[in-house]
Amino acid sequence: MPGWLTILAAVYLIIAGICFLVIIADVVAGRRQPMWIMNLVWPITALYAGPIALWAYLRGGRAYGQQTMHGSMEKGGEAAKEAEPSWRSMALGATHCGAGCTLGDIVAEWFTFLVPLSLFGQAIFAAWAIDYLLAFIFGIAFQYFTIKPMRNLTPRQGVVAALKADSFSLTAWQVGMYGWMAVATFVIFKQELPKTGPVFWFMMQIAMMAGFFTNLPVTWWLLRRGIKERM
After folding, report:
1. CA atoms 170, 176, 179, 181: torsion sign
2. Distance between CA atoms of 93 and 91, rounded to whole angstroms?
3. What distance in Å separates the CA atoms of residue 146 and residue 150, rounded to the nearest whole number?
4. What's the predicted TM-score (pTM) here?
5. Is there a contact between 111 and 37 (Cβ–Cβ < 8 Å)?
6. 9-64 pLDDT tens trace
7. Which of 35, 60, 191, 213 is the most buried (most CB within 10 A)?
8. Cα gap 90→155, rounded to integer Å
9. Are 23 and 63 in contact (CB under 8 A)?
């Protein structure tokens, strides 16, 4: 493993951790989001996007004043009248999916580290299978707590709506993530990276960004069809 890559990975992980803590501190200091789930989505996004997430949070995601859920929904209703989803609504819609995928991947990767498993003779395939299952569970939960209050749905209706809104977009995200990790594992390094090293988690951060971009077209379509709520 090149020494420079290990240093770069460690530095970026530290920077992402600092961005995570800055957003957490800002939220705890009183700048809570009108929609409470975003208090989790923003710092989790910083775990992989680092400075980009912090910039986006400070630029357009930070809560100001006494915003209310009612006011947020009124703005969302106005945005929903747009013919095409804006880049901002697409990015916000993707971050919900990304937060669920990030949590699922972190839990799954450490689980398969502690409990070695293999699928088709490869440990990475077993990790991907568990990644997808946990990411799906977390992703649907994040979408549920977004879509249920915005549409004032019953719990059952909220679950059904979350499944419709997030199943395809989450799968699109995982395709990007798996694609990059496959390139990193089988093409660049030609071996599975140790999960106790910074390079593996740096590659996972890049994989999350790849997932963000493969998710965007699906999120655009879901927003345009009204299946997913515009924020």
Report:
1. negative
2. 5
3. 7
4. 0.83
5. no
6. 999 999 999 999 999 999 999 888 888 888 999 999 999 999 999 999 998 888 76
7. 35
8. 25
9. no
